[in-house]
Amino acid sequence: MVDKGRHSRRNGRAADHAADHAAVELRGVAKEFDLSRRREALRVLDGIDLTIARGEFVALLGPSGCGKSTVLRMIAGLETPTSGSVEVEGGAPSALIAEHRLGVAFQDSALLPWASAWDNIALPFRLAGRSVPEERIRALLETVGLEGFAKARPKQLSGGMRQRISIARSMALDPDVLLLDEPFGALDAVTRRRLNLELGGVWARRRTTTVLVTHDVAEAVLLADRVIVLTGRPGSVAHVEEVPAPRPRGEDFTRSHGFHEVVDRLISLLDDPSGGGKP
Ligand SMILES: Nc1ncnc2c1ncn2[C@@H]1O[C@H](COP(=O)(O)OP(=O)(O)OP(=O)(O)O)[C@@H](O)[C@H]1O
Fold this sequence. Notes:
Keywords: ATP-binding, Nucleotide-binding, Transport. This protein is α/β, with parallel strands linked by helices.
């Protein structure tokens, strides 16, 4: 079992101060991209307010291009907001990254092509200057169903298998905040559902604060405490859906009336041509 109190003990008063803060907080965030070919900047996001509590799992849904990945990239410190603020664990994302407390698995997460699955998953330990705990790497390979592929190089694996390595790698250091951008996108439906259930269990037990971008409404409802529907463009929060079921959730939840009711409501919101059914 993971000890979430370790940062409090390690960082003393700094952690006490951070305890006053949400895990992730976006306030009045807008994002514009300057495109040289256009006279006006492209306003991708506007007026995004989002507070994510410690241990909460939030899924971001919305039409293609509404800015979901941009939100995630700002939380990861890979983009800066044009206006507004983004705080992670009470500070700038860069502070969390420097302490190796942020895990990311993005669609395009590059694996080291010359390194084995094992070494790719072990990479965060090496980057953090820590010794590689063999048992942990073995357990992570097993969690993502790749126990027989420890020595395989990325090019010997399918796209879905590479994604699973990225997921395992993002979890390696047991981060405080986990950012996942369509991590299951290249998987077949059966493997996707199996991993949803299995990793959903792991994340719920560890209470890792998680932000997941997905196009799969059922996946969002199965995994998340809250589903945020963004509408475009510029992207803003159109709807917030609380999923009133304790995590971890099993297959019985996916067969329940409550699950299907929420999935149907979200699908009709996303289907609304007026732009995501603003309440
Ligand atoms: N670095 C960039 N430079 C210019 N435009 C960008 C950049 N990054 C994203 N955009 C634009 O911002 C908009 C939102 O992109 P983003 O990837 O955040 O959307 P998304 O909701 O995640 O889309 P999808 O669901 O298709 O992955 C798009 O119009 C995209 O072209």
